[in-house]
Amino acid sequence: MKSAFCLWFIALLGAGCIHTYTAMSISRNGVLRTNATALVALAEDGRFEKIDYPGSGRKTALAVSEAFARHLRMVDVTAQTGSFSQHLEQARTGRFDYLVVPTVVHWEDRATEWSGRPDRIEIEIRAVDVPSTNTISLGSITGKGKWATFGGDVPEDLLALPLGVYVNWLFAPEGAPLPQPSVKVEHAPAKTGRDR
Fold it and tell me: First-to-last CA distance in the chain?
């Protein structure tokens, strides 16, 4: 009986040490060119219930720009938030090929170590061809943090892996399936600036 309980507890603890991710394509019309440039719009900050998360929009835009910079000739981020038409005008003025507009749909930073509630994110990413203003792709990524943590985890830790998978796919030939991000197993909390 004791051994069965120990095995159940170990399996439960192992499940709590896993981040889970989903990358989803809502629409895709073509393949992005690697010899191009992109302007990433600064996203509005995320909010969950009555909690605002200052800086979450900038963290999202920077993570998105890093993912696109692995493929494109040059990527820049707008200095401030604004409307789609304002960002499009900036992209035209700067002679960028693409405008990438990330939107923070869900941003939830929890004190998981004592509440048991994991961090969660959902980001929508729209890529637009600047000269034609046509939307090339619209996708969504989600991440859910592990609940077994000793602190130091933050929602932006959930961005890099699913963003990388989704953006890689945008440069893959048409008809290529969108792979799902592998779960990321961590048995110790990642070091952050707050831990140093």
Answer: 43
